[in-house]
Amino acid sequence: MGNRHLSLETMAKWLTGRLEHDDMLREVVPHHLEQCPACRDTYRELQKLKEEVGHWDEEVVLLESRDAPELAAQLQDTPDGDDRDGRVEGDDILHTWGLCQLLLRRSLAAVRQDPGAAFGLADNAVRLTAHLGESYDSQWVLGLRARALAVRANARRVLAELRSADADFRKARACLSRSAMEGTRFEAEILDLESSLRRDQRRFGEAQQKADRALALYRENEDAHGVGKVYLKKAKILEESNELEGAIELLRNPLEWIDPGSEPQLYASARYNLLCGFIHAGRHQEAHDLLNEVRELFRGAAQPLDRVRLRWAEGNISWGLGRVDEAEAAFREVQRQFLDLKMGINAALVALDLAVLLSEQGRTRELKPLAVELLAAFESREIHRESMAVLILFQRACEEERLTAELARQFASLLRREAKP
Question: What's this model's pTM, rounded to 2 decimal places?
C-alpha cells in the first residue's frame, strides 16, 4: 500500500481487533514500514531469518533461530554413538524445525572439509524430522525431510558412497512429491545436489537436465547465490564430459552471473575453475597467467581446502611448463595434506600425478613407497570394481618396477570419478 493512509473502515476494524490477518499484512504493515525506517530494518532482519530457518511463521523463526545454536551445542556435547542417537530420538527439546535447518546448513558448509562430519550432521537432521510435532504443518515437514535426505545424500556422494546417495535421493523425491515444497528453493536445492551425483555417476545428460531445472527454480525464487552455484556446476559437468572448450567459454565471463561484491567465494571458485580448465586443456601458460589473480582472490574468500587444491593446480602448471622440481615438491606437499585430512581418494590422485612425473623421468625405484602410501590412503567403502582392479595392477607394476606413465594415466582417469569437489 506504500504511503497511502488507512481508510476509516480499515482503521475501525484494526482498532477493534476485527481486521483479518491477510488485510493486516496487506494494508497496515506496509504502511507502518513505509513510515518507520527502524521498523523497516527490523522487518528485513526478520525476513532474512525466515530465509535462513526456512519456515513461514515469524514467531517460530525468531524463537527457533535463537535456540538452535544452543541445542546444537548440547547435541554435540552428547557422546557419539548410542547416547547421541537416543537423545536425537527421545529428547523433545531437540525436535525443532530451526535445529534441523541449522544442522543442514552446517552439513553443507562442512562437506568439502570433513565429509564424515557433514554426514553425521545431516543424518541427525533426517532423524529429527521424524519427530517434529503437530505445531508444524505436515506437508512442510515432508519438504524439510526431503531437503535433509538430499543433504545427507550429498555427504554420502562426497564419501564416494554413490549407491547409498542414490537411495537417499529416491526417498527425497518421494517426500517432496507429497509436500508443499515443489517449485520452491527446497526443490531447487535438491535438484542442484542431485545433479552433482549424476555427474559423479557419469550420467552427464541427466546431470545437465537437473542443473537446468534447478537454475530455472533459483531464478524464479530470485536466489542469486543458487544461480551462481548452478553455473559453476554446469561448467564442471562440461569439463568432466570432455567438453573442455565449452566449460572454458562458460567460465570466461562469470560477471554475467556472479556479483563479486555479494558472492566473493563463488567468484573466486569461478576463476579457479577456469584455471583448472586451462590446465586440463593443456593450456598451461594461460593457467599461469591467471594464477596470481586466483591466489589473490583465495586470500580473501577461500576455505583452507581450497588453498590445498590451488597448490595442486600450481604443481600441474609447473609440470606443464617444464619446471619438474617445482611440480614434484608441490605434489608431495599436497599429498601429505590430503592424507592428513583423511581424503584418501584425493591423496591417491595426487600420487598418480607424481607417479606419472617419476615414470617420465625413469625414476621407477621411487614408485614402490608411493604404491604403499596409495593403498593405505584408498579407504572408500563403495569403490568402483574397475578402479580397485586397476589399483591392484598399479601396485604390482610399482613393485616390479614396470609402471609406465601411460598406465598411471589410465588409473588416474578411472580413479578421478571417485574424487569429489
Answer: 0.73
